[in-house]
Amino acid sequence: xxxxxxxxxxxxxxxxxxxxxxxxxxxxxxxxxxxxxxxxxxxxxxxxxxxxxxxxxxxxxxxxxxxxxxxxxxxxxxxxxxxxxxxxxxxxxxxxxxxxxxxxxxxxxxxxxxxxxxxxxxxxxxxxxxxxxxxxxxxxxxxxxxxxxxxxxxxxxxxxxxxxxxx
Length: 167
What we know:
Organism: Sodalis ligni
Protein name: Putative acetyltransferase
InterPro entries: Acyl_CoA_acyltransferase, GNAT_dom, NAT_camello-type
CATH class: Alpha Beta
Pfam family, one: Acetyltransf_1
Domain N-acetyltransferase: 9-167
């Protein structure tokens, strides 16, 4: 089901044809902030080009954000690998500059957290990097708290900011 969040913005579940375009968005935003594959960031994730398949798994979801008819961002929820079954992870939240400052990230995160609660998760984890100051501020507003060590097996070795929220 698709919903309009504001003029010219559409939020919808990922579809098979979105794989390449959302991977390109993630790579573009990552490069903008210097988050390159050689440093262990999301762009080094072997699943990046297969997000539809990844988020078609049980207790997982990914939403695409279209702006003026073009894919401009997205984000998802999935079980946190290597962690307790009641812990999920907020994953791959990336937005082109055209979406930033419009409240889209907040709305998408809220949608993801509601989905997580509906799937029986009791905690939501995320990893990011200190370079993404606006993202960290958003996560703090959403009630995520900073934690010392990593949880699970995310494979993001250079994401030094780790946060957890009780759902």
